[in-house]
């Protein structure tokens, strides 16, 4: 599903070599293996695009497999959301929806096989003792006193572990590898624990659960995965996975590691995202500030913009942080070409056109999308009383301010030139509450016959026709480029951006926006791209989320972040 020709990368090089060597009978089988313990985020999108993209390019298949081996954290709502997000991104796993929890029986048999081969044993050490025995990078581990149990005894104990004869945590099944291995993961790792926990799919059928390390590689093998693509932190696990597969004598997928995506000014750890949700720093997994796919979708991102972003960043062997601005560029570029323009005033200031006839209404032609002539024009009502943006007026403007001020003429987009002739203030506070202006009827449509051209063009909404609306503006969730960079003793959440959400309830929208459908997108002239919120909008009362500003406001936010440091 890449929009462009696939870029060469080291993963493709490996696959090309394998195909040339006739490995796997020329098959390419990948998988996307989420653990259903949270919603998918933009980092997962990178993995999804990669796995499904490679399968498509090589006429192979990509499975969706839920790596659901941990009963404590997994839920069926996460499964639902993951399927929704993968499908939304534009990928189809057809009938290949698999669950590691469906392999529990098979994994158990594999463990029995390993015991029979003298390569696994039941150990009575507690979890803490196992850790103590493991040793360190510089110190070899200590062998468990239970390491040399007979095969028969191990088979018997393991069967009874499964049958529920022993209390939680009292025993584990461990691989018998080498306690002096430099790679600590190979120092007799735990394969099974006793844990009486309810599994969201298997209920209470099991009281022993496989570790991720035991389940993952074998699950890939069961599915005949040819290229098991994962993130760099699993590089050190590869010798262990290979050891299991070699001992069992079953199909061995080629594991290939790539650098995980980190995005600036946000976190991509499910644990941290869950904490933000649980502690109500955000409204939910799909809060438009979240880097989750459901959050990005609600914010107004399209699947294509995310796929293009993933194509662009490519795959590498070294971890780095990608700027959020890059992601924003992709959605901005797409929406600029595709979405209709509209006018909305976020912080309204009333303008009365003193020479415009009372009661008169004109329907003016406004261009729907200057980038797309086929989008045509629409009629927008214009009348004596209008709203303009409050900060488009300054009573005593500094040198570089070209918008409205006393005595100055500006252009109202697709309408007329107006000149400010009087400023009305609240006598108590001195606040400007209304402007009186004249308009030049000869400039209808926004052009003067004498060719004069004001320096500023502003958006507007007819006051009598305006629809009130709620608009939500966003900044990044965190002030720091790398939110994980925290001061000693501080909480990672201390880097949260207190201004990440601004709710504007008194916006004035052009009338047609009243019936804008949830999920539809617009460019509000001069303000950015907006998407109608699917959750909080109701018929006739759209709530707009700003997807992205018109220009990259990055520099400013980064600067603000610096100032906070
Ligand atoms: P977390 O570390 O937040 O718990 P995870 O990697 O454990 O996330 P999984 O559900 O196991 O989450 O991820 C499914 C797949 O997505 C894995 O193959 C993993 O390598 C990949 N993945 C997860 N996060 C990223 C990321 N930031 N960039 C690229 N791939 C990722
Ligand atoms: Mg994982």
Description:
- The protein has 13 helices and 27 strands.
- It has 565 residues and is of the alpha/beta class.
- The protein has three domains: 10-263, HUPs (Rossmann fold), CATH 3.40.50.620; 344-466, Ribosomal Protein L25, Chain P; 470-557, Ribosomal Protein L25, Chain P, CATH 2.40.240.
- It has a seven-stranded mixed β-sheet.
- Helices cover 27% and strands 23% of the residues.
- The two termini are 41 Å apart.
- The longest helix is centred in the N-terminal third of the chain and has 16 residues, at 42-57.
- The structure holds adenosine-5'-triphosphate and magnesium ion.
- Adenosine-5'-triphosphate binds at residues 33-35, 43-44, 46-47, 230-231, 260-261, 268-270.
A few lines on this structure:
The protein is α/β, with parallel strands linked by helices and 565 residues long.
The total of helices stands at 13
Total number of strands? 27
Look at the structure and name the CATH superfamily of the largest domain: HUPs
Helix content: 25-40%
Primary descriptors:
single chain, 565 residues, alpha/beta, Rossmann fold, Ribosomal Protein L25, Chain P, seven-stranded mixed beta sheet, 27% helix, disordered C terminus, binds adenosine-5'-triphosphate, binds magnesium ion
Topology:
Blueprint: H1 10-20, E1 29-32, H2 42-57, E2 61-66, H3 76-89, E3 97-99, H4 104-116, E4 120-123, H5 127-134, H6 151-163, E5 172-175, E6 190-194, E7 208-210, H7 212-222, E8 227-231, H8 238-248, E9 254-258, E10 261-263, H9 270-278, H10 293-299, H11 303-313, E11 320-322, H12 324-338, E12 341-342, E13 344-345, E14 348-353, E15 361-367, E16 377-383, E17 385-389, E18 409-412, E19 417-425, E20 432-440, E21 457-458, E22 461-462, E23 467-474, E24 501-509, E25 521-524, E26 528-532, E27 543-548, H13 554-564
Parallel strand pairs: 1-2, 2-3, 8-9, 10-11, 12-25, 14-20, 18-21, 23-27
Antiparallel strand pairs: 4-5, 5-6, 6-7, 13-24, 14-17, 15-16, 17-22, 18-19, 19-20, 23-24, 25-26, 26-27
The structure holds adenosine-5'-triphosphate and magnesium ion.
